[in-house]
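Hi support team,

I'm opening this ticket because the web form for multi-chain structure prediction keeps timing out on my end. I have pasted the exact lines I submitted so you can reproduce it. The total is 120 residues across three entries, so I didn't expect it to be a heavy job. Is there a limit I'm missing, or should I split the entries? Thanks in advance, R.K.
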Amino acid sequence: MNIVNDKTYREPVFEIVRGIPAGKVMTYGQIAIILGEGYTARTVGYVMHGSDEGVPWQRVINSQGKCSTDKLTMPVSLQRSMLESAGVIFSKKGKCDLGVYQWFPEGFEPDEGPQPSLLF
DNA sequence: AACTTGACGAGGG
DNA sequence: CCCCTCGCCAAGT
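Hello R.K., no limit was hit. The queue was backed up. Here is the completed structure from your submission:
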């Protein structure tokens, strides 16, 4: 059995990704932690590799704020430009500020109050 | 069954 | 910052 073809395994991942609003992003590891049991950053990335079905795949990046699709299914340039047109700003080195753009689903917000960068 | 490869991540130099 | 090492775990050879 192959998890990429196992809908019961992939669906929870896609459900979360479909909930990310435009202009926001989530990381592979973050999704794995939320799903818990049986999911790891690697397997989430593996599932995303075969995403289709209207899933906004471009909103999932790695924990360093960088796009990881290089030379694979989709070129980084495409993922990055799609996010930029949604308002996400990238540094010269291709990194975006997770403190500003990372999305937390309802019930998974990090525990403290507003961050300095969000007060303005 | 052994070994290599990743849309990964944390930690150290 | 960049680079390397490990831990991770499913897939492909």
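A quick check on our side: The longest strand of chain A covers residues 26-27. Let us know if the file doesn't open in your viewer.
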